[in-house]
Amino acid sequence: MMERQRPHSKVSVEDLLRLKRAEKPAPEFWTEFETRLRYKQLAAIVDKRPWWRRVSLRNLGKLSVPIGATAALVLTALTVRQSPPTATPTVDKSARLAAQEPAQAPADVSVSAPTLAHRSETAASREDSVQAQVASAPAAEASPAIVHVATSSSTSSSGAVATTSSSSTPEYSLAQVILGLEGSTESDARPQFEVESGLLSSLQVGDFRPVVERRDAPLAQPPAATPQDSRRARLLAYLTESEENGYTETNPRVARSRERITRRLSEQALYDSISRLGLNGDSVTIRF
Amino acid sequence: MAVGSKLLAKPLIGTPERQEEASADWQIVQRVQAGDVAAFDRLVLKYRERVYGVIYHMVANREDAADLAQDVFIKAFQSIHRFQGQSSFFTWLYRITVNSTLTHLRKARLRSFFSFEKIHEEDKSAEVLAQLTDKTGADRELFVKELQEKLNEAMLKLSIKHRTVVTLFEIDGLSHEEVAEIMECSVGTVRSRLHYAKQLLQAELQSYTRP
């Protein structure tokens, strides 16, 4: 039926497509359209878009440099905080002099900054000041002295003062013992001594109670005591107690105990380093 | 707040009328960006028929087209703070329209339900129909309905990209440059797609057209 009329048609494809322009909805359609659009618009305003939709890749690209820099800073800070300090403990000349003159006036010896190389203890335990009741020489030759034992890492330094009633020679040896125990896993850890004379006047003979003082206040926040710290303190207390009671190196029992304590402390440091470094075969994992 | 103080970031393509229109749109957009939400209604009122028309000619379903058109305006409203006048608002809105429709068509590739709007016999369409048939009354209505179905079927046989080009250029009356800008391709690509699409349509609708 249609075919009979079509040979007369002179329309083109473009004309036929223009017919489609005439396909339009009725006016009432737009009323409904408007209502539904309003409803959706209100819903869109009320519904908060999730954050991942608001973050576009373009914005992330702009922020890549600051984000990367921040990440690098955080990583650096964490690494420095976790990394072992460089061990450059030195003994002050005055401390040495005091050590050579036990009969002289009591010296105020400050042991500072035994930074321990190759040590993977946490910064918290490293910064922890050594608290020990140090007793050494026989009471007859004992002259009151103050030993400042201060430990410091590469980034911060903190200190503690251990008050003792020993003369300078035992002080030096005790400090060496303490610092040697602290850095028992390191071969190049050397204690550093500084003589401070200001605290001398405040010293009471027989005052063996450890005095703790913080040196660099802003950076030296005392960390929370860990089980390792308490264990170390207990062992050190036992060690110093034995010295206080007059036991000497010649006593085999004392020597054995000291050896055992030293070994346990070394093992503890070793466990710490192993647990944090995670040396498993050919892979190394670092836990923060 | 001073509205319209900023100029469009990029010189617009098209006729002076189109550029004037773009400047007016940009002023409204700036008002919306400044917090005048009601100003967006003017943009909706201005472009709703064209947006709906583009979608409808591509999906051939009036209900889907209505939903998609509403979604397009919602998207535009949500993203209007990011519009910086790099192109005209009209081009930007059309880009959202085309992308939303393409996404919809890709999702609903396997299912296709058709529902057509009625052809309003106005000046041009009445002239074309007069050349196709001299029937009147119910027969004429039947003929128009049959022609409409054939036209839509032929359109739906085109690929999505070819259908988009035909819709924007032949039905909506945009220029090659505007189509290229909306579809983010070259003018040559637009011309090529248009030529190919017309060949296919010619083959499909040859019973209605002159040889």
Write the layout of secondary structure elements.
The complex is a heterodimer of chains A (288) and B (211).
Chain A: H1 13-21, H2 27-46, H3 51-54, H4 57-82, H5 93-100, E1 108-111, H6 123-127, E2 145-152, E3 157-164, H7 168-182, E4 193-195, H8 227-244, H9 252-277, E5 279-280, E6 283-284
Parallel strand pairs in A: 1-2
Antiparallel strand pairs in A: 1-4, 2-3, 5-6
Chain B: H1 16-33, H2 39-59, H3 62-79, H4 89-107, H5 123-132, H6 137-157, H7 160-171, H8 176-183, H9 187-204
Helix pairs in contact in B: 1-2, 2-3, 2-4, 3-4, 4-8, 7-9, 8-9
TL;DR?
With 288 residues, chain A is an alpha+beta fold. Chain A is built from 9 helices and 6 strands. Chain A has a 4-stranded mixed beta sheet with strand order 3-2-1-4, covered by helices on one side. Chain A has a two-stranded antiparallel ribbon with strand order 5-6.
Written overview of the protein:
The complex is a heterodimer of chains A (288) and B (211). Chain A is an alpha+beta fold and 288 residues long. Chain A folds into two domains: 33-82, no CATH class; 93-284, no CATH class. Chain A has helices at 13-21, 27-46, 51-54, 57-82, 93-100, 123-127, 168-182, 227-244, 252-277, and strands spanning 108-111, 145-152, 157-164, 193-195, 279-280, 283-284. Chain A has a four-stranded mixed beta sheet, covered by helices on one side. The radius of gyration of chain A is 38 Å and the shape is rod-shaped. Chain B is an all-alpha fold. Chain B has a domain at 15-117: RNA polymerase sigma factor, region 2, helix turn helix motif (Rna Polymerase Sigma Factor, Chain: A, Orthogonal Bundle), CATH 1.10.1740.10. Chain B has helices spanning 16-33, 39-59, 62-79, 89-107, 123-132, 137-157, 160-171, 176-183, 187-204. In chain B, helix 3 (62-79) packs across helix 4 (89-107), helix 4 (89-107) packs across helix 8 and helix 7 (160-171) packs across helix 9 (187-204). The radius of gyration of chain B is 19 Å and the shape is globular. In chain B, 36% of the residues are buried. At the A-B interface, helix 1 and helix 2 of A face helix 2, helix 3, helix 5, helix 6 and helix 7 of B.
